[in-house]
Amino acid sequence: KLWLSYQNYLENYYRLLKSKNEIEQKELQIATINIINQIKQGSYITINQNEELKNLLEKIYETNRRLIKHADTKTQIILEKELNDLQKSIHDINFNLKQKRETLVTNKNRELTQHRTELQRIRQAITEISSELHPDDTRQLIQKLNLLGIQWTDAERSLTVLIDSLTKRRSEYQDFENKFLRFIQWFENFLNNEINQRLNGLTIQTSLEILKNDIRNIITDKRKYANELLIQARLLQSQLTDQIQIEIIKQKIEQLEHIMDTIEQHVEKRIKKTEITCKMFNEFEQGCENIRLWMDTIETNLQRTLPTQNTNEFHIHQQSIAAIEMDIEKHSTVMSSLLALGHNLLNDTDISSRTIDSLSRRIQTLEQRWLSLNELIKKNENS
């Protein structure tokens, strides 16, 4: 039942679309100054503004979505194709009619300009035969001619204003398109290249400072630029009568807002990640310093604790070794955590290659000293 309704909607829409298209085509072929003025004032009702067509189209979209939701894959493909074909037909007809409206205005203006000489010729003819006419007849002819001249001038003015308006609108639309395209290109380059180029090779602290200051300032400036674009887009949207263009502008507005939200979120996430990395790095640095001082103390104590033949001293030596062993055992967890932290930092993309090399050497030194310390304690145990 729903499928039959859908097909019926489609059939009615295509039939009505064809009918309205033919009507508008005829109107434009025999367009009067009144129709041209309507186009100028934006009151000319186009196919896009036809309520019957709009209502039918809404029903088609809604029914199509409902059918797709419950259809198998093959039927879904058919439904998607039908909808795409419909949208293409609407776009083609709208584009064709829009071109005809613009051509009509331009041609009418050209015709009026070309035929203005006819008015001048008639005026000259009346002047030449005025001596043979009654003064009242001459006066009436001149009055009618003057009135026609005024109407002619008004028509020319209306067409000129309309052409200027269309040209300006087209220029504004193109300007927006160019700015929008440049903004998209900047956005893609900034996320994929520029932000990394600004941070490559820097220390974590410097990267964090640049992210918080320079890059945030760039984003703030771009947010202002994007807001100006949004204002321009909404103004265009309010002035346009072409539903296709209105929809395109609407999509670009949404895209602009999404882009700015995305890039701001990306930078804030990058800042947060770099802050975490910076904290980890500082903890590693402090941990290395603490463990180095502790190792220095342990190594010194082990070197001082030399075995002797005296039983009492030997007993003291054993106690000292046991205490050092316990201390080493306690620090084994600290050492494991510190080394794990170091290895995690080695895999962090925020750390420059130069810092990675230094970090790697420090980890190796720690591991070697820890191994040497354990060997030294075993040596003392066996002594």
Automatic annotation (TrEMBL):
State where the protein is found.
Answer: Membrane
InterPro entries named in the record: LINC-complex_assoc, Spectrin_repeat
Which Gene3D superfamilies does this UniProt record tie to the protein?
1.20.58.60
GO BP: nuclear migration
In its keyword annotation, does this UniProt entry include Coiled coil? yes
Q: Where would one find coiled-coil regions in this protein?
A: 105-132, 208-266
What's the main place this protein lives?
A: membrane
Q: Which keywords describe this protein according to UniProt?
A: Coiled coil, Membrane, Repeat, Transmembrane, Transmembrane helix
Q: Name one Pfam family in it.
A: Spectrin
Query: Would the keyword Protease be found if you checked this record's keyword annotation?
Result: no
Listed under GO cellular component are: cytoplasm; meiotic nuclear membrane microtubule tethering complex; nuclear outer membrane
| A GO molecular function held by the record | actin filament binding
Give the matching PANTHER family: MUSCLE-SPECIFIC PROTEIN 300 KDA, ISOFORM G, NESPRIN-1
The identity of this protein, by name, is Uncharacterized protein
| Biological source species | Rotaria sordida
